[in-house]
Predict the 3D structure of the following.
Amino acid sequence: MRSASLFAPLVVAAALVLAGCGVERGGADEPVALKDAAPAQGDTFIEASIANISALIPNIANDSASHEVGALIYNGLVTYDRDLKVAPELATAWTFSPDCKHLTFKLRDDVRWHDGKPFTADDVVFTHAAMVHPKTPTAYREDFDAIERIEAVDAHTVDVTYRTPYAKALQSWSMYMLPKHLLEPYVKEGKLREAPQNRTAPVGTGPYRFKEWKSGEKVVLVANPDYFEAGRPYLSRVVFRVIPSQATVFLELKAKGVDGASLTALQYKRQTEYPAFRKAYNRFRYAVNSVTYFAFNLKDPRFADKRVRHAIAHAINKQELMDHVILGLGRNATGPYLPGTWAFNSSVQAFPYDLARAKELLAQAGWRERDSEGYLVKDGKPFAFEILTNQGNDERKKIAEIVQASLRELGLKVDLRMVEWATLLKEHVRKRNFDALVLGLGLGRDPDMFSLFHSSKTRPEDFNVASYANPEVDRLLERGRATCVQEERATQYHRVHEILADEIPVIFLYHRDALPAVTSRVRGVKPSPSGIMYNFPEWYVPRELQRYTAG
Amino acid sequence: MLTYALRRIFFAIPLLLGITFLSFAIIHLAPGEPTDLIQGDPRLEASAQARQLLREIYGLDQPIHVQYWKWLTRIVRLDFGRSFSPDGRPVLAKIGERLPVTLLLNIVELLIIIALAIPIGVLSATRQYSMFDKVTTVFVFVGFATPDFWLALLLLILFGVQLGWLPISGLRSLNWEYLSFWKQQTDFLAHLLLPVVVATFGGLAGFSRYMRQSMLEVVRQEYIQSARAKGLAERVVIGKHALRNAMLPIVTILGLSLPGLIGGSVIVESIFAIPGMGQLMVQAVFERDYPVIMGNLVIVAVLTLVANLIADLAYGMVDPRIRVGRRR
Amino acid sequence: MKEFWRALRRNRLAVVGGVIVVILVVLAVFAPVLAPWDPNRPDVKTILEDPSRRHPLGTDQLGRDVLSRMLYGARVSLAVGFVSVGIATAIGIVLGALAGYNGGSVDGFIMRLVDLMLVFPRFFLLLAVLAFLRPSIWTIMAVIGLTGWMGVTRLVRAEFLALKEREFVVWSQAIGASGYRVVWRHILPNAMAPVLVAMTLGIPAAILTESGLSFLGLGVQPPYATWGNILNEGKDTLEIGWWLSFYPGVAILVTVLSYNLLGEGIRDALDPRLRQAAGGFATRKG
């Protein structure tokens, strides 16, 4: 009887110890030692996806999973190459007038939709019409609304005129092109969501054709034999498997049930160092185009005081924060620009960790006395506030916890609150009902920060969450938008970077690294500033190593 | 009895209306709307426009009772509407593709639990405080106390990674279409094995304890003692007389578990990557996908009312102590 | 009363259960004194350390001492169990008694209320409430309690329906005892047995529910530790941080077992019918 109650934990302990030993029965495929085995067609690539896709026309979807799949099915007129520069895709060449209002594209003449019909300038004009149609529920219409006139000069030339000089014009045409001959009737009636192309039969021009979507389970794509760029991609099939639990994804990786997956920092650093894994998988690391930040609500008089913000910035040891949360796998951030991009001002310095200076600044701002618990007080009230962030995000939770502990040393009483995402957006972010936030921001391809820091964007629907208003920054942002000459824009943005790093309406914390693991039997993966997926059609598996040959 | 049943059915309709209206109201009162999640690139102000457009399409700009009325008039025609998520598919289609798996898992689990719980309960009761009783007590409570996701991951590590005997996630292997018919079935079973084990292990405690308790009470009754006094073999006494009466509360509980059969455990589904009702509903809640939430709610409500009615009637018929409906 | 204690003491398993529960409560109450480290203080130098003499149960992903977190977590887990089940049981007893004793339309109304609560997705209610109110230990306890009374109500109602017809009740009413007295002194004690079973299964269920909520991100807010959320954080590091899963898991297991054994022992000792027969037929090793 006594032993019965010990029995179960012993079994459990045994299982855990076994697990910890990392005894691998599966063993690694011994990959053939040749690094340059000849490219061969065939095989299937299985990618693990945490979320289910929501639609097959990415223009009307908002989640990254739908865009990841869409990127293989569709193309834009332009795309980004390995160095994050704009490169031709469906367009071969373009001219952008010096006044930044007039853009002309020359299109490829050898592109066919997946159903065989040729891709022409009419499809480009149609895509614009679809994006601006009042009944199309897309969040990406802004760039297309700025167009005053668009016309198909001939079957392979498109002329676009913008109302005002539009800096983002060229980049905006990386949006996916849609087939006019199939979708026009749906767009006209405002029923784009219900088109079969959104559910069961998407038609694009991309390297892969759609085969199957089992909601919540998988998406299957097959190689497009008529792909315009160098013919069909090598990998015959791509399967996106939906596995919602990160823990399970890792198990599948170890059991070779998936070929590609994102690793967490912990998995990258501590759980994938053993020889069998290194032989079976290649790990990559590159900066993600995003920034994680801590935002103040400048409407709060305490935070409106720059000294207080500086004090808080000095009290957060960013290197330790990064070591804690992402095990150092990221870059310190000083502004909303990714290091290495043209808008980034490399002379901007980060705030050093300096607790003494922080206390001094707070004292200057009037926070000198402490109460019985050690918290700073002014006029009898302790310095207490609440940090909000969204539930379910482990990274942000850890950041909040560390900031809370750091600020406690400074003498600030910080409470944490994890709020469910929809509620957070609606009740707190949009209504500016918060003291401080920890959130992440996708930086997108264009460094225009107008919606985030321009003083006109402080209305409830807008995204200047900190309620920041600085006339000089306003001017710089306006000028940055109004020209399409990169050097001119860079000048404005460098200055914006300087100012933001000093005024810190938002403390930029870090830029995280992406940590994908790809099975070692796949060759041709070339990491670059833009990641690893940019040349996916060139990935291949040498004949001897191909694993999935059915179908 | 009949009048009672008819009366219940008659009152079920306004009851259903009440339940659905209250639920509708509460669901819409929760902060956040489905359109709030349209973010896209937050730097694009078009998000606000897209949101407004969707609000109109969904009818969210109308007052609650109007929305409810619209929803109600469609439901009675069995039109469950379309999901608010970007794929806009009919609610019934979304529920329909997830329901079979969940039903299968739940029914298999229920059958196994019953098959195990009854003998365990009976034997524990007749051998109260014996070694068997104590061991099974501890065993079922261990099952109850073990958090699902923990057990699931442990089993996956052991059987999936270390030993490689069982697949780790999903419902089918990728090459399922190319397998022979029998191989397909075994593949499917192999994928379902661990989820069923995890679910059963946790659910065994409730049933077996109730069975044991019920059996213990019955065995004390006078009619059992008189049956023994009459000289009947113990096996007949227990198997025929005691068991039948001890089963009563179990039958009731079974009946009441009926509506729960269409609900899935989001934790188990998430760990095993099984596209079931649990994940559908949790996602629907997070996305404020009202049509899907309400659709599921209606089905559960109807099932619950039906199950309750049957359970009450059955209990009333069998247990003479309980009078259903006033007879004074 | 003495009989009750004697019967209880005879049940070895129940005694073990009871002792463990008492130990847990003591540990929880004296957590601030017993915990060697600050449970909420992150330390980047000690991330995920193996159990050692400095950290007997290891450290977590933020470098915090697991033993200290477990001790403080005991308070939360036990409180969640007690309070939420207390609330649910209290509501259940009241409603069940009202329904069972009065019958008729009162019964009908209450049972339809039960139906409504059963149909309504509890998860959604949690989300809605936690969105409106500041999510804290109290709100979580309240919500778990307010959504968990249906089972107890049914049980109590069933007992009342059955007992109402029994002779001694009819008698008491005949001699003029007030309804309240009848309920309090006669019916309720007899109805308690199944309620106790429900409670003993309910307390650990509440602890597990909190753990499940942590899985979905809805549990007790960080940085406060509960066994459930330590376990949840540990699932991502099962292999390199097994102590994060092992110790809270064992703790939950032991707690659940103890409560159940104790509870069942209490029930067995309370039930006059069972006690009476304890020396007789029931122990036949058939």
Notes: Confidence is low (pLDDT under 50) at residues 1-34 of chain A. The two ends of chain A are 56 Å apart (CA to CA). Residues 7 and 56 of chain A are 51 Å apart (CA to CA).
